[in-house]
Amino acid sequence: ETKLDVSGAPRRFEPLMEHRARTRHAIASGLREALARRQFILHYQPLMDLSTERVTGFEALIRWNHPERGMIPPMAFIPVAEERGMISAIGEWVLRAACVEAAGWPASMTVAVNVAVAQFANGRLASIVRDALAASGLAGSRLEIEITESLALAQTEAVRAQIEAIRAMGVRIAVDDFGTGYSSLAQLRNLPFDRLKIDRSFVRELPAGLESLAIIRAVAELGSALGLQITAEGVETEEQRDGLKAMGCTAAQGFYYGRPEPAASVPGMMVRLGGA
Ligand code: C2E
Ligand code: MG
Ligand code: MG
Ligand code: MG
C-alpha cells in the first residue's frame, strides 16, 4: 500500500496521524452498523433539586456497547457521527429510546436528552420530538432538550422556530455546558430557554477558584432574574454542593449524587436519592 504525503509534514509524525485517521474511519463505518445491530445504549445520571435535595429526573447519555472494544464513550464517536452526517439518525434513536424508558418511571420524573446542532439542520426535529412523545406516551412536560451554547446563539429564524415548536409541546429547553462559548447573559435574554447548565470546568475549580466563583455567582443571579433554572454540572463534593446552593444554583448533577448508570439502575437511584 502506497502512502502519499501531501501535507509535507515530517515523516516521523505519520504513524500517529495515520492511526488517528484509521481510527476515525473505523468508527464511521462501525456507526452505520451499530444502529441496525442495536449496539447503542443509554445511561442515566440523576438530576437533583438543590432546595429539596431530591432527584427530579435523569439525563440520558449515550454509549456504544461495541462487541470487541467494549463501552465507548460519546466523545469518541459523537463528533465523528456529526462529521459523517449520521448524527440525525442516532439522535432520533436517542430521543425515542429515552422517551420510552422515561415513560416507565414515576410521573414526577423528567428525562433530559442531548441534541446536536446538526439535528436542527433538516428542519425535522420538532416532528421527531412529537413522534417520540406520541409513540411512548410520555408527556411533553417530562422531556427536556439540551442544546449547546453555540446553537443557542445561532439565532437563525429556522432554529428559533423549531425551538418554539418544541416548547409548544410543553418540552423544556436547556443550554448545556454554559460558559464555554462566547455568549453573554444579555444575549440569552430574549431567547426561549428554561435552564442554563453551568459547565463542569467552572464547578471543578470550587471552592478555591475565585474567578469561577464570581462567574457562577453572576450566572446564577442574572439567570434566575431572567426566570431560568440554573443547574451546576460536575458536582463531586459536598463542599461544592454547599457553595453552589449558597450562590443560587437551583439544581445539580454530578458524581457526588450519582454517575450515569444503565436504565435498570434507575429505580434504585430513585430510592437512594429520595425520588420514589
Ligand atoms: P454533557 O451533556 O455535558 O453530559 C455530562 C457529562 O459529564 C457526561 O459525560 C457525564 O458522565 C459527565 N459528568 C457528570 N457529572 C460528572 C462529575 O461529577 N465529574 C466528571 N468528571 N464528569 C461528570 P459523558 O456521558 O461521557 O458525555 C459527554 C458528552 O457527550 C455529553 O456532555 C454530551 O455533550 C455528549 N452526549 C452524550 N450523550 C449524547 C447524545 O445522546 N447525543 C448527543 N448529541 N450528545 C451526547
Ligand atoms: Mg447534557
Ligand atoms: Mg453538560
Ligand atoms: Mg459538560
UniProtKB/TrEMBL annotation:
<protein>
    <submittedName>
        <fullName>Bifunctional diguanylate cyclase/phosphodiesterase</fullName>
    </submittedName>
</protein>
<feature type="domain" description="EAL">
    <location>
        <begin position="24"/>
        <end position="274"/>
    </location>
</feature>
